[in-house]
Amino acid sequence: MCGIVGYIGNKQAVNVICDGLEKLEYRGYDSAGVAVVNGDSKVNWAKKQGRLSGLEAVLEQSPIEGTVGIGHTRWATHGAPSDINSHPHLNMSETIAVVHNGIIENYMEIRERLTAEGYVFKSETDTEVAVHLIDKYYEGDLLQAVYKAVAEFRGAYALGVVSSNHPGELVAVRKESPLIVGVGEGEYFIASDVPAILKYTRNVYYLENDEVVYVKDGKIQILDAEQNVVDKELKVVEWDIEAASKGGYDHFMMKEIYDQPQAIRDTLLRRLDENRMIRLDDIKLTKEDLDGIQKMYIVACGTAYHAGLVGKYAIEKLAKVPVEVDIASEFRYSDPFIDEHTLLIVVSQSGETADTLAAMKLAKSKGARVLAITNVVGSSVAREAHDVFYTWAGPEVAVASTKAYTAQMIAFYMIALDFAFKKGTITLERYHELVNNIEALAPLVEEILADKAQIEKMAEDMKDAQNAFYLGRGVDFTTAREAALKLKEISYIYTEAFAAGELKHGPIALIDQGTPVLSIVTQDALQEKMISNIKEVKARGAFVIAIAKKGDTEIAKVADDLFYIPEAEDLLMPVLAVIPTQLISYYVSIARGNDVDKPRNLAKSVTVE
Ligand code: M6R
């Protein structure tokens, strides 16, 4: 994620930038920094690990004056949170400064090339290549140097650039990462998101991919990749500041539900090389390592545990290795069988969950290799693990986890594919087919989200329920468990998930007239069995809401209400099936007047046992 802000005008840049960064802290708060040009021979800068308040304390001690500058709040992807890895990054002579949001995928090859040419890198970030490359191409024209540099980048980036050689100029570029331009009276702003500038102006240009902003001597130009001037419409923002920081949504949870297509794309696409092979840079497990592993565990808590259940399904199906999944708080006290032939995969959005951390420490002490799937770079889980897979879902603010879950499932599909390919348990053709099918999930999620009004109506029928049940079979049972957790945690309705085949062994006694039973039916081989189970609960008075694949006309005959989701291959259906259940939980919670983002009794990160 990360947030960038830039200013050029008559005000003190540091004040405007800090105001903006404060509004962007939801995008990351691992560190913050500013760079200002004011006629001095070098760029003036300050940066500090931690929240913006840390940077502000530094700036209070040593103020930086000037009316042109850029700033950044970081959510680490490459390199742990630290002062050195903080933005802005500077060239060796400190005459050029860059802030960046996104990932420059080919930064390693550029870094090696520049190092061979004598450039000295200070940080572990991908961003630092940008400033050195601009420096390399700089021949007195900042804009041209930026154009030449970005032509070499692969990936996603929004960049802000200033130079002490050009105190009246500000350059910014957008590709895949968001960037807007604010227009005030004789002043211009750049920012990753609208809230950063709303205190100063509501007039905004929304940039498209490959567009470049060039402000010089009080005049702005927006240029395309070929340096043609783009005639853009200036829009007026109607949102207030609070709504804007949630991207215009009423709650972070809804924003994060809508972030999911991007989270899927970011987690997958940025790890595909030019031959569409998955590159897991922070996982060093070789074929020999994998052949030596006799036991695999997946251990996590809550939603992350449910992602682990999907992970087991994917790894067993593709890599043909048996996997056990356990809840971290149970695993650590169960005297698990662990030795140096064990691989423990831990999953944690925050990377700080106490039980998950304790489980991995236990496994390490017994000689196991530990692979962590986490969303937070430099988190405790990431630091403790031998191998790491970062889900690039961006910061998750709502307590109810949504986008982290989908990104964790994508991570497992990719790890399963990587293991399977290394172990030779799938063909190259099937490998590519699956990569394509995973990529195709993002637009399918968008399709589901476009139908949210139907779900809002369904939720209306459920809002007064005393209890509710989710049913599923196979991997749909996993989706049912995740769906039940989500509904109970934000609606406070007593909700349980059952393996549909288990109903007759007890749970069916709970079904009464009107009890909502949400049935997930996406697995072809289990569809007939699910229809029988639906008939059984209906016969006892249940109100059945089904979530099924488009075109399943048999389900339509038995369900009281039905939400169709698009079809993907069965293995990947959990990613699609969970989306309507997240929306149901959201709308039921709203209808009951609950605080969706901060449900009672819960915290985002559970750092106690
Ligand atoms: O940060 P973690 O992924 O380790 O957190 C695990 C659980 O606490 C978390 O998934 C929790 O269950 C969520 N509130 C579910 O929405």
What labels describe this entry?
Rossmann fold; 22% strand; Glutamine Phosphoribosylpyrophosphate, subunit 1, domain 1; 37% helix; binds 5-amino-5-deoxy-1-O-phosphono-D-mannitol; 609 residues; 24 strands; alpha/beta
Structural account:
The chain folds into three domains: 3-244, Glutamine Phosphoribosylpyrophosphate, subunit 1, domain 1; 252-439, 3-Layer(aba) Sandwich (Rossmann fold), CATH 3.40.50; 449-591, Glucose-6-phosphate isomerase like protein, domain 1 (Rossmann fold). Helices cover 37% and strands 22% of the residues. The two termini are 30 Å apart. Helix 16 packs parallel to helix 21 (573-591) and helix 18 runs parallel beside helix 21 (573-591). Strand 2 (31-37) and strand 3 form a beta hairpin. By secondary structure, it is an alpha/beta fold. The strands form four sheets. The chain has an eight-stranded antiparallel β-sheet, with helices on one face. Strands 5-6-7-8-12-13 form a six-stranded antiparallel β-sheet. The chain has a five-stranded parallel β-sheet with strand order 16-15-17-18-19, sandwiched between helices. Bound molecules: 5-amino-5-deoxy-1-O-phosphono-D-mannitol. 5-amino-5-deoxy-1-O-phosphono-D-mannitol binds at residues 301-304, 348-350, 353, 356, 399-401, 485, 489, 605-606.
